[in-house]
Amino acid sequence: MKKIITYSLFLFSSFSFAQVGIGTSNPQKDLHITGSTSTIRIESLNSVNQPVLNDGSKLAPVYVKPNGDLTLNPPGYTTGGGVGTNQPLNFLISIPNFIPNGPYGDGTVVANPVGVTNATQQIVSVPFTSPQNALIEVRYAMTIDLSDEILPAPGASTFNDISARTVRCYFYIDLNSDGLDAAESSKVYGLHGEAYTSYAQGSVGYAFIHGVGYGNIPAGNHSLVFFGETSDGNNRKTYVGFGGSSDYLKIRIYN
Hints:
The chain is mostly beta strands. The chain has two domains: about 20-80, no CATH class; about 90-255, Jelly Rolls (Sandwich). About 5% of the residues lie in helices and about 45% in strands. The protein has two helices and 13 strands, in the order αβββββββββαββββ. Strands 5, 6, 8, 11 and 13 form a five-stranded antiparallel β-sheet that branches. A four-stranded antiparallel β-sheet has the order 7-12-9-10, with no helix packed on it. The radius of gyration is 30 Å and the shape is elongated.
């Protein structure tokens, strides 16, 4: 009897410290799963057992508690509005050169010919996605190419009159990327303007314009719609290319 007990303890000890392999006969860790498409399923975290934090359609974040347990609901956080809102959200979308340069590096041109004092045109629409209701911070910067001759063209022409021009840039938030409606078009974000004046002087090149704006958005797919605007005298010609040389867009998303 004594020998049997000793043998049983030896077997128990061997199994206690054995490494387990799934898909391999030579496990390298306590649990070793091989295969390029191998996955792990924990049914206690699925949409049936955790319907509040895992709705079955959006990805549910999994956290590791101090003792190593996996959970959808870590201590110290509140669930707030439901799926996906129990974790702090703060990430950055960075989009360099978000405006097409155009054939001559003029970007998107807003034309203000003789007889027109104010001209407005859409520069670009930039789609983005937010996983939940959030506050967005938008920072943009772009070069502007000013000319008194029609753009786009192989070379811009400097102003040679005594007159001032103003250039402005701003954006709207197109919720759900379904086109700007009246309510969305009534809210202007990130408005910034520059003034330019010259008298028979100046050089061809790029000025710079930038802005920042904040807005609240629901979860989903949305777009930032940028517009450029110019103003001048009634008998003046002003052509402005937005984003021809260098531009960048940064979207910070917070919950």
